[in-house]
Amino acid sequence: MGPDPAVAAVRVAVRRVLADLPQGETVLAACSGGADSLALAGALAFEAPRGGRPAGGVTIDHGLQDGSDERAETVVRTMAGLGLDPAGSTAVTVDGPGGPENAARDARYKALDEAAERLGAAAVLLGHTQDDQAETVLLGLARGSGARSLSGMPPAFHRQGVLYLRPLLGIGRTTTRRACKAMGLEPWDDPHNIDPAYARVRVRHQALPALEKSLGPGVAEALARTAGMLRDDADALDDLAARAYADLEVREDGWNTAVRLDGLAELPRAVRTRVLRMAALKAGSPPGTLAAVHVDAVDRLVTAWRGQRHVDLPGGLRAVRRSGRLLFGPA
Protein backbone atom coordinates (compact mmCIF):
# COMPACT_ATOMS: atom_id res chain seq x y z
CA MET A 1 0.00 0.00 0.00
CA GLY A 2 1.39 3.37 -1.04
CA PRO A 3 1.55 6.60 0.95
CA ASP A 4 -1.41 8.87 1.54
CA PRO A 5 -2.28 10.74 -1.71
CA ALA A 6 -1.38 14.07 -0.09
CA VAL A 7 2.03 12.76 0.96
CA ALA A 8 2.57 11.34 -2.52
CA ALA A 9 1.66 14.68 -4.15
CA VAL A 10 4.18 16.62 -2.05
CA ARG A 11 6.88 14.02 -2.60
CA VAL A 12 6.37 14.01 -6.37
CA ALA A 13 6.61 17.82 -6.46
CA VAL A 14 9.89 17.73 -4.53
CA ARG A 15 11.24 14.85 -6.61
CA ARG A 16 10.72 16.83 -9.80
CA VAL A 17 12.80 19.79 -8.70
CA LEU A 18 15.52 17.59 -7.20
CA ALA A 19 15.92 15.82 -10.56
CA ASP A 20 17.34 19.02 -12.07
CA LEU A 21 19.93 19.55 -9.34
CA PRO A 22 23.49 18.18 -9.21
CA GLN A 23 23.85 14.92 -7.35
CA GLY A 24 25.93 14.92 -4.23
CA GLU A 25 25.24 18.57 -3.36
CA THR A 26 23.27 19.62 -0.28
CA VAL A 27 19.69 20.85 -0.61
CA LEU A 28 18.08 22.82 2.22
CA ALA A 29 14.43 23.14 3.23
CA ALA A 30 13.44 26.49 4.73
CA CYS A 31 10.99 25.43 7.43
CA SER A 32 8.95 27.72 9.67
CA GLY A 33 7.13 24.86 11.35
CA GLY A 34 3.88 25.67 9.53
CA ALA A 35 2.03 22.98 7.60
CA ASP A 36 3.35 23.97 4.17
CA SER A 37 7.06 24.06 4.98
CA LEU A 38 6.78 21.11 7.37
CA ALA A 39 5.26 18.94 4.62
CA LEU A 40 8.04 20.17 2.32
CA ALA A 41 10.70 19.20 4.86
CA GLY A 42 9.19 15.75 5.28
CA ALA A 43 9.12 15.19 1.52
CA LEU A 44 12.70 16.40 1.11
CA ALA A 45 13.92 14.11 3.89
CA PHE A 46 12.27 11.18 2.08
CA GLU A 47 13.26 12.00 -1.51
CA ALA A 48 16.80 13.41 -1.22
CA PRO A 49 18.57 10.23 0.00
CA ARG A 50 16.89 8.24 -2.78
CA GLY A 51 18.45 10.59 -5.31
CA GLY A 52 21.89 10.54 -3.72
CA ARG A 53 21.65 14.07 -2.34
CA PRO A 54 22.38 15.27 1.20
CA ALA A 55 19.49 17.31 2.63
CA GLY A 56 19.31 19.71 5.53
CA GLY A 57 16.90 22.20 7.00
CA VAL A 58 17.01 25.69 8.44
CA THR A 59 14.44 27.69 10.38
CA ILE A 60 14.53 31.43 10.98
CA ASP A 61 13.74 32.90 14.40
CA HIS A 62 12.38 36.39 13.70
CA GLY A 63 12.10 37.17 17.40
CA LEU A 64 8.71 38.83 16.92
CA GLN A 65 6.83 36.77 19.52
CA ASP A 66 7.46 35.53 23.02
CA GLY A 67 8.95 32.05 22.98
CA SER A 68 10.05 32.26 19.35
CA ASP A 69 13.46 30.82 20.25
CA GLU A 70 11.84 27.78 21.86
CA ARG A 71 9.62 27.22 18.83
CA ALA A 72 12.66 27.45 16.58
CA GLU A 73 14.38 24.75 18.60
CA THR A 74 11.26 22.58 18.33
CA VAL A 75 11.36 22.95 14.56
CA VAL A 76 15.06 22.03 14.55
CA ARG A 77 14.34 18.85 16.54
CA THR A 78 11.51 17.97 14.16
CA MET A 79 13.73 18.43 11.09
CA ALA A 80 16.49 16.37 12.68
CA GLY A 81 13.93 13.68 13.53
CA LEU A 82 12.94 13.53 9.88
CA GLY A 83 16.58 12.87 8.99
CA LEU A 84 17.58 16.30 7.73
CA ASP A 85 21.22 16.93 8.52
CA PRO A 86 22.34 19.60 9.15
CA ALA A 87 19.29 21.06 10.86
CA GLY A 88 19.63 24.43 12.56
CA SER A 89 18.07 27.78 13.36
CA THR A 90 19.20 31.36 12.77
CA ALA A 91 18.01 34.34 14.80
CA VAL A 92 17.50 37.62 12.93
CA THR A 93 16.67 41.20 13.82
CA VAL A 94 13.62 42.53 12.00
CA ASP A 95 13.92 46.22 11.17
CA GLY A 96 14.18 48.42 8.13
CA PRO A 97 11.90 50.19 5.65
CA GLY A 98 8.70 48.91 4.05
CA GLY A 99 6.76 47.80 7.11
CA PRO A 100 7.11 44.68 9.30
CA GLU A 101 6.22 42.20 6.55
CA ASN A 102 8.87 43.49 4.16
CA ALA A 103 11.45 43.84 6.93
CA ALA A 104 10.84 40.27 8.11
CA ARG A 105 11.08 38.94 4.56
CA ASP A 106 14.34 40.81 3.92
CA ALA A 107 15.86 39.54 7.16
CA ARG A 108 14.69 35.99 6.43
CA TYR A 109 16.15 35.85 2.93
CA LYS A 110 19.44 37.35 4.06
CA ALA A 111 19.73 34.65 6.72
CA LEU A 112 18.86 31.93 4.19
CA ASP A 113 21.44 33.33 1.75
CA GLU A 114 24.10 33.11 4.45
CA ALA A 115 23.05 29.61 5.54
CA ALA A 116 23.14 28.31 1.97
CA GLU A 117 26.60 29.80 1.39
CA ARG A 118 27.92 28.50 4.71
CA LEU A 119 26.65 24.96 4.06
CA GLY A 120 27.48 24.92 0.36
CA ALA A 121 23.87 24.20 -0.60
CA ALA A 122 22.95 23.78 -4.25
CA ALA A 123 19.44 25.09 -3.58
CA VAL A 124 16.98 26.18 -0.91
CA LEU A 125 13.41 24.89 -1.13
CA LEU A 126 10.56 27.19 -0.06
CA GLY A 127 7.09 26.03 1.00
CA HIS A 128 4.88 28.51 -0.86
CA THR A 129 1.72 26.85 -2.16
CA GLN A 130 -0.95 27.41 -4.79
CA ASP A 131 -2.97 29.36 -2.21
CA ASP A 132 -0.03 31.69 -1.56
CA GLN A 133 0.23 32.25 -5.30
CA ALA A 134 -3.48 33.13 -5.58
CA GLU A 135 -3.15 35.59 -2.71
CA THR A 136 -0.14 37.21 -4.39
CA VAL A 137 -2.08 37.67 -7.64
CA LEU A 138 -5.03 39.27 -5.84
CA LEU A 139 -2.72 41.64 -3.97
CA GLY A 140 -1.14 42.61 -7.29
CA LEU A 141 -4.58 43.26 -8.79
CA ALA A 142 -5.48 45.49 -5.85
CA ARG A 143 -2.33 47.55 -6.42
CA GLY A 144 -3.04 47.90 -10.14
CA SER A 145 0.23 46.16 -10.97
CA GLY A 146 1.43 45.06 -14.38
CA ALA A 147 1.85 41.60 -15.88
CA ARG A 148 5.13 40.91 -14.05
CA SER A 149 3.53 41.44 -10.66
CA LEU A 150 0.36 39.56 -11.63
CA SER A 151 2.47 36.59 -12.70
CA GLY A 152 2.98 35.95 -9.01
CA MET A 153 5.89 34.17 -7.40
CA PRO A 154 8.36 32.47 -9.75
CA PRO A 155 8.91 28.73 -9.27
CA ALA A 156 12.67 29.40 -9.27
CA PHE A 157 14.90 32.41 -8.77
CA HIS A 158 18.46 33.35 -7.84
CA ARG A 159 19.64 35.87 -5.27
CA GLN A 160 23.15 36.38 -3.93
CA GLY A 161 24.26 33.37 -5.93
CA VAL A 162 21.72 31.07 -4.22
CA LEU A 163 19.08 29.10 -6.16
CA TYR A 164 15.63 29.17 -4.54
CA LEU A 165 12.91 26.74 -5.61
CA ARG A 166 9.18 26.59 -4.87
CA PRO A 167 8.09 22.99 -5.55
CA LEU A 168 4.60 23.35 -4.04
CA LEU A 169 3.13 26.14 -6.20
CA GLY A 170 0.82 23.58 -7.82
CA ILE A 171 -0.36 22.13 -4.49
CA GLY A 172 -3.05 23.59 -2.22
CA ARG A 173 -2.82 24.32 1.47
CA THR A 174 -5.34 21.62 2.37
CA THR A 175 -3.05 19.05 0.78
CA THR A 176 0.01 20.10 2.78
CA ARG A 177 -1.96 20.01 6.02
CA ARG A 178 -3.29 16.55 5.20
CA ALA A 179 0.24 15.43 4.32
CA CYS A 180 1.49 16.57 7.73
CA LYS A 181 -1.24 14.61 9.47
CA ALA A 182 -0.44 11.49 7.44
CA MET A 183 3.28 11.82 8.27
CA GLY A 184 2.57 12.33 11.97
CA LEU A 185 3.85 15.91 11.93
CA GLU A 186 2.20 18.60 14.06
CA PRO A 187 2.40 22.00 12.38
CA TRP A 188 2.59 25.29 14.25
CA ASP A 189 -0.01 27.91 13.34
CA ASP A 190 1.57 31.36 13.41
CA PRO A 191 -0.89 33.83 15.02
CA HIS A 192 0.28 36.44 12.49
CA ASN A 193 -1.48 34.35 9.85
CA ILE A 194 -4.87 35.24 11.32
CA ASP A 195 -4.13 38.87 12.18
CA PRO A 196 -6.37 41.06 9.95
CA ALA A 197 -3.88 43.93 10.27
CA TYR A 198 -2.01 42.27 7.40
CA ALA A 199 -3.37 42.65 3.87
CA ARG A 200 -2.45 39.08 2.93
CA VAL A 201 -4.41 37.74 5.90
CA ARG A 202 -7.50 39.70 4.80
CA VAL A 203 -7.14 38.29 1.31
CA ARG A 204 -6.76 34.76 2.70
CA HIS A 205 -9.66 34.80 5.13
CA GLN A 206 -12.04 37.34 3.57
CA ALA A 207 -11.43 38.06 -0.13
CA LEU A 208 -10.76 34.54 -1.43
CA PRO A 209 -13.60 32.91 0.52
CA ALA A 210 -15.97 35.63 -0.77
CA LEU A 211 -14.87 34.92 -4.34
CA GLU A 212 -15.31 31.18 -3.82
CA LYS A 213 -18.80 31.79 -2.45
CA SER A 214 -19.81 34.06 -5.34
CA LEU A 215 -18.07 32.30 -8.23
CA GLY A 216 -17.80 28.72 -7.04
CA PRO A 217 -14.84 26.56 -6.06
CA GLY A 218 -11.54 26.61 -7.89
CA VAL A 219 -10.76 30.35 -7.72
CA ALA A 220 -7.33 29.84 -6.15
CA GLU A 221 -6.40 27.25 -8.79
CA ALA A 222 -7.59 29.56 -11.59
CA LEU A 223 -5.62 32.52 -10.23
CA ALA A 224 -2.47 30.43 -9.91
CA ARG A 225 -2.97 29.11 -13.45
CA THR A 226 -3.42 32.65 -14.74
CA ALA A 227 -0.21 33.68 -12.97
CA GLY A 228 1.69 30.98 -14.85
CA MET A 229 0.38 32.16 -18.22
CA LEU A 230 1.15 35.79 -17.42
CA ARG A 231 4.66 34.80 -16.38
CA ASP A 232 5.26 33.31 -19.83
CA ASP A 233 3.99 36.53 -21.44
CA ALA A 234 6.06 38.74 -19.13
CA ASP A 235 9.20 36.69 -19.80
CA ALA A 236 8.73 37.07 -23.57
CA LEU A 237 8.12 40.82 -23.34
CA ASP A 238 11.10 41.32 -21.03
CA ASP A 239 13.30 39.48 -23.53
CA LEU A 240 12.10 41.70 -26.38
CA ALA A 241 12.65 44.80 -24.25
CA ALA A 242 16.18 43.72 -23.31
CA ARG A 243 17.08 43.33 -26.99
CA ALA A 244 15.52 46.70 -27.85
CA TYR A 245 17.37 48.39 -24.99
CA ALA A 246 20.68 46.96 -26.18
CA ASP A 247 20.02 48.41 -29.65
CA LEU A 248 18.89 51.84 -28.42
CA GLU A 249 21.33 52.52 -25.57
CA VAL A 250 23.99 55.16 -26.24
CA ARG A 251 26.67 56.88 -24.18
CA GLU A 252 26.19 60.51 -23.20
CA ASP A 253 28.72 62.40 -21.08
CA GLY A 254 27.29 63.66 -17.79
CA TRP A 255 24.31 61.28 -17.81
CA ASN A 256 23.86 57.90 -16.16
CA THR A 257 22.04 56.32 -19.10
CA ALA A 258 20.71 57.44 -22.45
CA VAL A 259 18.61 55.89 -25.24
CA ARG A 260 17.99 56.99 -28.83
CA LEU A 261 14.48 58.29 -29.55
CA ASP A 262 14.77 57.06 -33.11
CA GLY A 263 13.10 53.65 -33.02
CA LEU A 264 11.86 53.98 -29.44
CA ALA A 265 8.47 55.52 -30.19
CA GLU A 266 7.72 52.86 -32.81
CA LEU A 267 8.03 50.02 -30.31
CA PRO A 268 4.80 48.47 -28.97
CA ARG A 269 3.88 50.19 -25.70
CA ALA A 270 4.35 46.98 -23.70
CA VAL A 271 7.94 46.77 -24.93
CA ARG A 272 8.67 50.52 -24.90
CA THR A 273 7.65 51.03 -21.27
CA ARG A 274 9.85 48.11 -20.26
CA VAL A 275 12.78 49.74 -22.08
CA LEU A 276 12.13 52.99 -20.21
CA ARG A 277 11.95 51.16 -16.90
CA MET A 278 15.25 49.41 -17.66
CA ALA A 279 16.87 52.76 -18.43
CA ALA A 280 15.59 54.33 -15.22
CA LEU A 281 16.73 51.39 -13.11
CA LYS A 282 20.16 51.35 -14.75
CA ALA A 283 20.42 55.07 -14.03
CA GLY A 284 19.95 54.30 -10.33
CA SER A 285 16.25 54.72 -9.63
CA PRO A 286 15.28 52.33 -6.78
CA PRO A 287 13.16 49.41 -8.09
CA GLY A 288 10.96 49.43 -5.00
CA THR A 289 9.81 53.01 -5.55
CA LEU A 290 9.90 53.33 -9.35
CA ALA A 291 6.20 52.96 -10.16
CA ALA A 292 4.03 52.79 -13.27
CA VAL A 293 3.09 56.44 -12.87
CA HIS A 294 6.76 57.42 -13.26
CA VAL A 295 7.26 55.23 -16.32
CA ASP A 296 4.06 56.60 -17.89
CA ALA A 297 5.29 60.16 -17.41
CA VAL A 298 8.62 59.30 -19.08
CA ASP A 299 6.71 57.61 -21.90
CA ARG A 300 4.91 60.89 -22.60
CA LEU A 301 8.32 62.46 -23.24
CA VAL A 302 8.59 59.96 -26.09
CA THR A 303 5.06 59.75 -27.51
CA ALA A 304 3.34 62.98 -26.43
CA TRP A 305 6.13 65.54 -26.15
CA ARG A 306 4.91 69.13 -26.06
CA GLY A 307 8.05 70.78 -24.79
CA GLN A 308 7.98 69.28 -21.28
CA ARG A 309 11.25 70.04 -19.51
CA HIS A 310 11.78 66.81 -17.60
CA VAL A 311 10.25 64.07 -15.43
CA ASP A 312 11.41 63.63 -11.84
CA LEU A 313 12.12 60.04 -10.81
CA PRO A 314 12.71 58.33 -7.45
CA GLY A 315 16.30 58.35 -6.26
CA GLY A 316 16.94 62.02 -7.01
CA LEU A 317 16.96 61.43 -10.78
CA ARG A 318 15.20 62.93 -13.75
CA ALA A 319 14.53 62.04 -17.38
CA VAL A 320 15.10 64.71 -20.05
CA ARG A 321 14.41 64.72 -23.79
CA ARG A 322 17.21 66.41 -25.70
CA SER A 323 18.79 66.24 -29.18
CA GLY A 324 17.07 63.05 -30.25
CA ARG A 325 17.87 61.21 -27.05
CA LEU A 326 16.20 60.43 -23.75
CA LEU A 327 18.65 61.13 -20.95
CA PHE A 328 18.56 59.83 -17.36
CA GLY A 329 20.68 61.39 -14.63
CA PRO A 330 20.85 63.43 -11.42
CA ALA A 331 18.10 65.98 -10.89
UniProtKB/TrEMBL annotation:
Catalytically driven reaction(s): cytidine(34) in tRNA(Ile2) + L-lysine + ATP = lysidine(34) in tRNA(Ile2) + AMP + diphosphate + H(+)
Pfam families assigned: ATP_bind_3 (PF01171), TilS (PF09179)
Intracellular or extracellular location(s): Cytoplasm
Main EC class the enzyme belongs to: ligase
Keyword ATP-binding (UniProt): yes
A GO molecular-function descriptor: tRNA(Ile)-lysidine synthase activity
Domain annotation tRNA(Ile)-lysidine/2-thiocytidine synthase N-terminal: ranges: 27-206
Record keywords: ATP-binding, Cytoplasm, Ligase, Nucleotide-binding, tRNA processing
Claim: Cytoplasm is one of the keywords in the record: yes
Gene Ontology CC: cytoplasm
Binding positions (ATP): 32-37
An individual GO BP term: tRNA modification
EC number(s) reported in the record: 6.3.4.19
Annotated tRNA(Ile)-lysidine synthase substrate-binding domain residues: 261-326
InterPro entries reported in the protein's UniProt record: Rossmann-like_a/b/a_fold (IPR014729), TilS/TtcA_N (IPR011063), tRNA_Ile_lys_synt (IPR012094), tRNA_Ile_lys_synt_N (IPR012795), tRNA_Ile_lys_synt_subst-bd (IPR015262)
Alphabetical list of HAMAP family matching this protein: tRNA_Ile_lys_synt
Domains (record comment): The N-terminal region contains the highly conserved SGGXDS motif, predicted to be a P-loop motif involved in ATP binding.
Sequence similarity: Belongs to the tRNA(Ile)-lysidine synthase family.
Functional note: Ligates lysine onto the cytidine present at position 34 of the AUA codon-specific tRNA(Ile) that contains the anticodon CAU, in an ATP-dependent manner. Cytidine is converted to lysidine, thus changing the amino acid specificity of the tRNA from methionine to isoleucine.
PANTHER family named in the record: TRNA(ILE)-LYSIDINE SYNTHASE-RELATED
Protein name in UniProt: tRNA(Ile)-lysidine synthase
Lineage: Bacteria, Bacillati, Actinomycetota, Actinomycetes, Streptosporangiales
Gene: tilS
